[in-house]
């Protein structure tokens, strides 16, 4: 009986044990295999990004050497090559032209057979590339970087062929897992086992000879096709698993992370389950309970590891930002110091550029970690939806560049005008989705649809962006919003991005109660739909007119009614300094500040502004500082004012940045550099008024002056008293005047020109507008002459940047857009685009100057001023005396008397005198008038 009972119990225990073992293996292995595959995929993606970044640094370092050679004479080229070969990782450096090598330093002279090399030809076409390791005739394994130089030359940098192997050799996955890289032909070019590289392992060739390499051959075949995936194979009777992914920005290289299956948690769990089976057989049901408990342990470890990873990522992102901010800030200060030279300057510049790149990645990681951990916080503010849409369009439309893309905007009129929400994050999501559409569309169209749907006291704000771009493969759609990766990396390897943008955007959308969905057909285009829940402010909608103006990209027209209602404060006690290297921009700024009644002084450079502040006379209430100027930019000038002029006045005077680069984050940049505020060009009147009200106007002083000298304010506008709203200066032309209407009509013959934008800047004061137009006509030809022959792109960029700003300020949109395209291309170093388009741009700008000259003559003929044959010589003599005596008040008085008349012939003398007087150019006035009156 006992034997039967024991057999029955043993049978029951055996059945339970076997069933438990089978069920446990099938249940746990599936989960753990999924975890292993995910971990390896993430590891491969991170390793690929790391290698891609390192290769980018190698290429950028060679490009920097190339940039230095552009400024080095032929006699010094060899010395420069010797220096970088001795102090860098290079075995040799050589310069080639189309005939062969022209200079080198290092080992034996390079062969002219390089000219037939594929990578040499690509470098001559303007591409910087890295060729895979290869054996030289001398028996050395080398890696080469090919970089284009100015003057149709190429710089070839030769490095140790095992450099990439050493880059990845220290990385271990579990115990012996490692990273390897193959080139587009399947040769191993990086591995911790260096003999795999030196002996040119190629599993495709090996698999064709020996069937035991069949499985690695299949994996490598997929890798050289640019696929991303997981593969199982065996080598030397060891089963292995690998995750592989293309390395972006390389010539078909692919990276794999491979580990023995025996080292994976799956193998460990299998051993645990087999041991547990023996325990089940020995101890029965009691042992099963403990075995089940032990099986749960790996799951807990995996969860704990995942949580620890999230904590680590968040903590490290925060910890790394602090030293990075110091690295970027201090290196930027050193670069701007002017005392650095040679290797120290080069190394500091590399530190700064690398820091900026790394900071962008860390910011994305920080956003992701915050969203994952639930610590991401929205900051709701009241925002204007038409302005947000307009800003997004203006920021992203430049991404079209020269691509044949038609961009259309479809904004519905029933969208509420104002919302309460996180404007910065909404703009970030809009920018990400719209920039992706332009980035991945080579030709065709991009359409942006915006609508709203009420739900109770909230509104669903919907954005739908449809493009005719490259589309997304069906199998890639589920991975589209995953973190740390891009889909279709083979097709997209030349497209910039960390792969975090869509994941961050969806996370933010979900925090706002919405989501992002996508529909796509590969090769035909995609549709991204964003829905977020927002709280409307009031019941006002944007309306039909605003919607139409947005759709026609004419939203600035809609703002004119708002601007015309603006009541500017009359502040004759205030004095400001405007700094800009473009004379036209100075005249525009002076015209915009004129309605405030303040004194406006102008200088054309950073050093001149520094001297004004250093002298302390007059004491200005604020400085409006242009950002981009030759020699010394606005940031450097402000740094010197703040740090090197040891006066309270210099340390505390408000400095407002003026720039034509309306990029998100610039406000933080300028505020961190000693500025108090930030205005973009063309300057928005409402923003300018806000800055003046906050930083220039002094209500306490104003109150005292009104009591002591009330005559200064009689009949003048006062934003604190609505009865002044309809009062305007007698010299200001209202939009309904006959002269204004006639001027508008005459301007219609000028293509791509909106005169109302220029008039709006000077409060529709036609006389002030004429001063600005005269300035454009006088100074623009000299600027155009300076860029006919392109010597240095840096100087060219600054010049077209200035022309762009003055054109946009006056409403010359077509020429302004042409200048903007050339600025972006020259900034990017695209010399071919600049040379091909520069002549056409100059011709268009010259025609614009001629058209403006005719328009100005028309405006002056219709002036109410009396006509004289020429300026009065007695008044000119008085102006000469005032200039010789540096008598600013006398100068203003006598020039004002000249301006009371029109002249049949004056060679633009009166406008020129006004401009020179405004800029305190006493010597220039003396020189010209002395010759005339002699």
From TrEMBL:
It is a multi-pass membrane protein. The modification 4-aspartylphosphate is found at residue 626. GO terms for cellular component: plasma membrane. Residues 315-536 form the Histidine kinase domain. The chain crosses the membrane at residues 272-292. GO terms for molecular function: ATP binding; phosphorelay sensor kinase activity. This is histidine kinase. It comes from Leadbettera azotonutricia (strain ATCC BAA-888 / DSM 13862 / ZAS-9) (Treponema azotonutricium).
């Amino acid at each position: 009986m006992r034997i039967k009972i024991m057999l029955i119990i043993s049978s029951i225990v055996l059945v339970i044990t076997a069933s438990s073992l089978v069920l446990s293996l099938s249940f746990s292995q599936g989960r753990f295999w999924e975890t292993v595959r995910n971990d390896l995929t993430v590891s491969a993606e991170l390793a690929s990004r790391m290698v891609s970044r390192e290769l980018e640094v190698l290429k950028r370092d060679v490009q920097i050497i190339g940039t230095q050679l552009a400024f080095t004479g032929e006699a010094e080229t060899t010395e420069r090559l010797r220096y970088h070969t001795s102090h860098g990782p290079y075995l040799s450096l050589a310069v080639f032209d189309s005939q062969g090598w022209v200079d080198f330093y290092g080992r034996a002279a390079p062969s002219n057979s390089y000219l037939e090399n594929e990578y040499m030809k690509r470098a001559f076409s303007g591409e910087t590339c890295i060729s895979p390791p290869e054996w030289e005739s001398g028996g050395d394994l080398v890696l080469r970087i090919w970089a284009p130089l100015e003057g149709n030359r190429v710089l070839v940098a030769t490095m140790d062929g095992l450099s990439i192997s050493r880059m990845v050799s220290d990385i271990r996955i579990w115990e012996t897992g490692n990273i390897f890289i193959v080139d587009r032909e399947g040769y191993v070019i990086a591995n911790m086992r260096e003999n795999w590289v030196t002996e040119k392992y190629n599993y495709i060739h090996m698999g064709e000879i020996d069937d035991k390499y069949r499985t690695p051959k299949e994996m490598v075949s997929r890798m050289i096709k640019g696929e991303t995936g997981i593969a199982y194979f065996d080598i030397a009777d060891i089963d292995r698993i690998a995750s592989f992914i293309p390395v972006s920005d390389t010539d078909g290289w692919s990276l794999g992370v491979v580990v023995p299956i025996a080292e994976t948690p799956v193998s460990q769990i299998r051993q645990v389950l087999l041991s547990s089976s023996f325990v089940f057989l020995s101890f029965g049901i009691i042992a099963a309970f403990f075995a089940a408990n032990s099986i749960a342990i790996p799951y807990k470890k995996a969860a704990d590891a995942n949580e620890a990873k999230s904590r680590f990522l968040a903590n490290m992102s925060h910890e790394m930002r602090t030293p990075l901010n110091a690295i970027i800030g201090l290196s930027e200060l050193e670069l701007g110091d002017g005392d650095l030279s040679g290797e120290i300057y080069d190394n500091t510049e590399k530190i700064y550029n690398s820091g900026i790149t790394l900071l962008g990645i860390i910011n994305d990681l920080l956003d992701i970690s915050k969203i994952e951990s639930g610590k991401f916080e929205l900051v709701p503010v009241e925002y204007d939806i038409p302005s947000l849409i307009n800003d997004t369009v203006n920021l992203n439309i430049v991404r079209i560049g020269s691509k044949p893309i038609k961009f259309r905007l479809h904004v519905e009129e029933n969208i509420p005008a104002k919302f309460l929400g996180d404007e910065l994050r909404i703009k970030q999501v809009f920018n990400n989705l719209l920039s992706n559409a332009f980035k991945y569309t080579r030709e065709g169209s991009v359409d942006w649809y915006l609508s709203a749907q009420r739900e109770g006291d909230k509104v669903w704000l919907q954005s739908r962006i449809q493009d005719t771009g490259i589309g997304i493969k069906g199998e890639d759609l589920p991975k589209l919003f995953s973190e740390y990766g891009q889909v279709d990396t083979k097709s997209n390897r030349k497209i910039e991005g960390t792969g975090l943008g869509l994941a961050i955007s969806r996370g933010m959308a979900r925090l706002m109660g919405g989501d992002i969905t996508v529909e796509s057909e590969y090769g035909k285009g995609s549709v991204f739909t964003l829905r977020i829940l927002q709280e409307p402010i009031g019941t006002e909608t944007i309306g039909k007119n605003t919607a139409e103006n947005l759709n026609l990209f004419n939203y600035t027209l809609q703002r004119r009614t708002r601007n015309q209602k603006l009541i500017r404060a009359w502040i004759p006690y205030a004095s400001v300094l405007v700094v800009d290297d473009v004379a036209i921009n100075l005249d525009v700024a002076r015209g915009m500040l004129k309605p405030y009644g303040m004194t406006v002084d102008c200088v054309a450079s950073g050093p001149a502004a520094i001297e004004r502040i250093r002298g302390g006379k007059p004491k200005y209430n604020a400085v409006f500082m242009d950002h981009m100027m030759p020699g010394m930019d606005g940031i450097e000038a402000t740094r010197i004012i703040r740090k090197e002029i040891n006066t309270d006045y210099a340390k505390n005077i408000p400095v407002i940045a003026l720039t034509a680069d309306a990029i998100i984050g610039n406000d933080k940049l300028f505020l961190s550099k000693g500025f108090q505020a930030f205005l973009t060009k063309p300057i928005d009147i409402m923003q300018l008024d806000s800055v003046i009200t906050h930083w220039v106007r002094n209500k306490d002083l104003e109150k005292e002056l009104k009591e002591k000298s009330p005559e200064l304010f009689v009949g003048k506008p006062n934003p604190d008293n609505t009865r002044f709203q309809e009062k305007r200066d007698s010299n200001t032309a209202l939009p309904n005047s006959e002269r204004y209407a006639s001027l508008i009509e005459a301007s219609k013959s000028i293509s791509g020109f909106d005169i109302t934008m220029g008039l709006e800047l000077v409060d529709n004061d036609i006389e002030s507008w004429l001063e600005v137009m005269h300035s454009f006509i006088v100074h623009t030809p000299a600027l155009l002459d300076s860029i006919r022959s392109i010597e240095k792109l840096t100087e060219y960029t600054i010049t077209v940047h200035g022309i762009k700003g003055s054109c946009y300020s006056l409403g010359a949109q077509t020429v302004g857009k042409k200048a903007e395209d050339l600025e972006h291309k020259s900034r990017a170093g695209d010399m071919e685009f600049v040379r091909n388009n520069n002549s056409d741009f100059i011709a268009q700008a010259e025609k614009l100057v001629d058209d403006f000259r005719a328009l100005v003559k028309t405006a002056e003929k219709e002036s109410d001023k009396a006509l004289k044959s020429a300026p009065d010589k007695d008044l000119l003599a008085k102006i000469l005396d005032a200039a010789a005596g540096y008598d600013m008040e006398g100068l203003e008085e006598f020039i004002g008397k000249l301006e009371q008349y029109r002249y049949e012939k004056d060679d633009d003398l009166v406008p020129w005198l006004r401009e020179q007087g405004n800029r305190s150019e006493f010597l220039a006035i003396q020189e010209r008038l002395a010759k005339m009156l002699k």
